[in-house]
Amino acid sequence: MFIEAKNLSKNYGKQSAVQDLNFRLEQGQIVGFLGPNGAGKSTTLKMLLGLISPSTGSVLVDGKDPQEQEISLKKRIGYLAENNPLYPEMYVREFLAFIGNIHELSNLDKRIQEVIEWVGLEKEAHKKIQELSKGYQQRVGIALAILHDPKVLILDEPTSGLDPNQRDEIRHLIKSLQKDRIILFSSHILSEVEAICDRVLLIHQGKLVCDRPMKEIKDLEKFFKEKTS
Ligand SMILES: Nc1ncnc2c1ncn2[C@@H]1O[C@H](COP(=O)(O)OP(=O)(O)OP(=O)(O)O)[C@@H](O)[C@H]1O
């Protein structure tokens, strides 16, 4: 499986949000997608998911346009949105079952239990989502993203709102999912990107200003500032 952006651009009215991006993502890599506020990260992620269409250029998932094969593609992609939209009135298990049914998963109870343990929600799983702390709500979002065992994980700031211990746990979790998957995640926490990513895509004012292996970048914070100021 691969995801390819080819001359990808998006304008909102007269404003250009993303300009002429080119990159290719392969399985087995965790790729950090970085950039200052307003650089165009969420816009790019939404185009990769087929949620919004490019103004020009294209996204290819296994050589196909995600907008033309929306349902089959959704089965292969897990997405944690930046604002992590959840149903606050639902209980954790009820919510995961609701989503699992949409994905038509078999052995759903077993899978829900597995995912709940995986993201460390055992003690909170009997609660309504609105009763959970921000960090635990974030874990529900991650449980949701991985429930159907997708081959591609797109995570928009997965550790926002988490304390340092929780961040470590989620980091290990993401690492454990690396094999055979494409994982793309955006984060403003550069130490986390340094610890977890194999590769860094850096976007500034809608343009890709770096696509490099993490090991070639000595000090990511310094590098980020040099490229984006
Ligand atoms: N629906 C929209 N309509 C108009 N402009 C938009 C829309 N969504 C994003 N933009 C603009 O496009 C640019 C890129 O925004 P985007 O949300 O992709 O950036 P980002 O890198 O994800 O930022 P952040 O780190 O702050 O979340 C910004 O100037 C933003 O105001």
Structural class assignment: alpha/beta
Gyration radius (Cα, Å) is 17 Å
Listed once per kind, the bound small molecules are: adenosine-5'-triphosphate
* DSSP strand count: 9
CATH architecture of the largest domain: 3-Layer(aba) Sandwich
Return the average pLDDT rounded to an integer.
Answer: 91
How many domains comprise the coordinates?
2
Query: Widest sheet: strand order?
Result: 5-6-7-3-8-9
CATH class of the largest domain: Alpha Beta
The helical percent reads: 25-40%
Low-confidence stretches: none
Q: Separation of termini? A: 35 Å
H/E topology pattern: EEEHEHEHHHEHEHEEH
CATH topology of the largest domain, by name, is Rossmann fold
Sum up the overall morphology in one term: globular
Verbal overview:
The protein is α/β, with parallel strands linked by helices. It folds into two domains: 1-76 and 151-162 and 175-229, Rossmann fold; 83-149, no CATH class. Helix content is 34%, strand content 27%. The chain is built from eight helices and nine strands. It has helices spanning 41-48, 70-74, 92-102, 108-118, 134-146, 164-176, 190-196, 220-228, and strands at residues 2-12, 15-26, 29-34, 56-61, 77-80, 152-156, 182-186, 199-204, 207-213. The strands form two sheets. The chain has a six-stranded mixed beta sheet with strand order 5-6-7-3-8-9, with helices on both faces. A three-stranded antiparallel beta sheet has the order 2-1-4, with helices on one face. Strand 6, helix 6 (164-176) and strand 7 form a beta-alpha-beta unit. The longest helix has 13 residues, at 134-146. The chain is globular, with a radius of gyration of 17 Å. The termini are far apart. The mean pLDDT is 91. It binds adenosine-5'-triphosphate.
